[in-house]
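Appendix B. Raw example, untouched.
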Amino acid sequence: MDLITPAFGLIFWQTLIFLVVLFILGKFAWKPILGALKAREASIDEALSLAEKAKEEMKQLKGDNEKLLAEAKQDRDKMLKDAAKLAEEMRDQAKNDAKLIGDKMVDEARISIENEKNNALGQIKDQVAELSLQITEKLLKKNLSEDKAQQGLIKDYMKDIKLN
């Protein structure tokens, strides 16, 4: 039984060594270990705090990005609408310009046709007058070749003069 029950001296020396080791550890090791643990705990808390802040900033940035994206889409839609409106206005302006030019060309063509018509009518009148004079000259030469015909013509002219 001696092996199972320790002697008083053994317990005393073990307790004394334990207390010395406990004192040395308390004096030199536990304070730095506890300080390191507290520093580690503080750095973990700070890292968690920073992570939470980063998470909040990411949410805010995501919201800002979505807002900017929505604004960009609105700007793009506005630009597309403005471009479509401008294209429509340009198309209408081109149509109006083409219509004005077409109307002007038609008016110029009408004027040109009217001028050509008047010129042609003038030429026809001149030719008709010339032909009439030629026919009249031939008829007068033929009819007035006799003296009786000449006197009859003079009498007819005299009657016309008295009537007028």
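End of appendix B.
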